[in-house]
Structure of Enoyl-CoA hydratase:
Amino acid sequence: MTETTTTNATAAAAAPEVLSEVRGQVGFITLNRPRALNALSLGMVRDLMAILLAWQHDDAVLAVAIRGSNKEGPFGAFCAGGDIRFLHQAGSQGNPQLEDFFTEEYALNHLIHNYAKPYIAFMDGIVMGGGMGISQGAALRLVTERTKMAMPETAIGLFPDVGGGYFLARCPGSAGEWLALTGDTIGADLAIACGLADGCIPVDQQAPVWEALGTQQFADAEAVKAFVVARLLPKSQVLQPAAAELAQADAYFALPSVGEIVRALEAADTDWARATAATLRKRSPLMLHVVLEQIRRARSMGLADDLRMERDMVRHCFYLRPGQSETVEGIRALAVDKDHAPKWNPARIEDVTPAMVVPFFASPWPAHSHPLAALA
Ligand SMILES: C/C=C/C(=O)SCCNC(=O)CCNC(=O)[C@H](O)C(C)(C)COP(=O)(O)OP(=O)(O)OC[C@H]1O[C@@H](n2cnc3c(N)ncnc32)[C@H](O)[C@@H]1OP(=O)(O)O
């Protein structure tokens, strides 16, 4: 049976940004905003939440599969994050929907991590920021040869949210600090080595597997997962170059402070260290310090506490320093004016003090009225 569910559209005549249907025993979701690389709008977050909640208690749905679309059709791009143009506009103008966006997006991330049925994410192409938030909680995280995965937030004066503290802190060694601070983009090999993907599905196998999920008869939810797992490349074919790069990251990113990390990288005589130091010098100095603290705090937190901490932090990113939000400035430079020359404040890693960092971790809400108080 095919059942097409309701979908969001920004205007009545516009194409729906989230497509969903049930085919056979599986619920299928396609992110359908390819011109913005499927960046998540508030409407998309709401649609995803509504669809997942409906299917969670629908006995006809054994499992859920999600993918993105590119301009040519399905797959090719998963999701480039939260809609940063909206964040810029809403953050500059005090639009209350900004608060709703983060509360509802983080609640969606939490639901996916705790989803009662296998949720299978086809993470082809760009998977960044909010795209990680709707895939890292999946029962199966499938990357491809063309996956470009990153938590790029320090480039826009933000921090890796959407549960980034939780899942990056659980990467091996200091890989989480490396990915969080630099925002470096990784492919399938490092994604698997970092524990951020479960397996690699060849690009040309995605469509046949997706289609077959809707026509096969499955005994139960575990059989749906097993059907997909049987079609993944052996990990030994994917992992070859990853170990050496992780060892390099460990050598620097275990150091206690951002200053020591960047100084050690600048003193080293390898291309990797030089390039990594140069990357850090471009990121928001303030947010580098905030992010290192975030990842290290998150290492001893469960997901719900991490999301509450991130909800506090993201509010501060916009409102702690009125008229001086690093995030508004970072998005302006990357995606609004596109001059790629953010004016960070302070301008240098060395000029950030602990007194600037500490307030990001103070909750603006009493515990009982925290916007994510209900998350367990
Ligand atoms: C709460 C959640 C927070 C977060 O998720 S924060 C993290 C947000 N994500 C990012 O910071 C990534 C921003 N995007 C990029 O850096 C680049 O894109 C990519 C590296 C992903 C791809 O670059 P390229 O292949 O050159 O494509 P392109 O021309 O930059 O993007 C195509 C169109 O997509 C729009 N777009 C991309 N990402 C987003 C986004 N996250 N929010 C809103 N729009 C986005 C662009 O602006 C552009 O649009 P136009 O053609 O009209 O200029």
Remarks:
- Confidence is low (pLDDT under 50) at residues 1-7.
- The first helix runs from residue 42 to 56.
- The CA atoms of residues 157 and 290 lie 10 Å apart.
- The chain has 16 helices and ten strands.
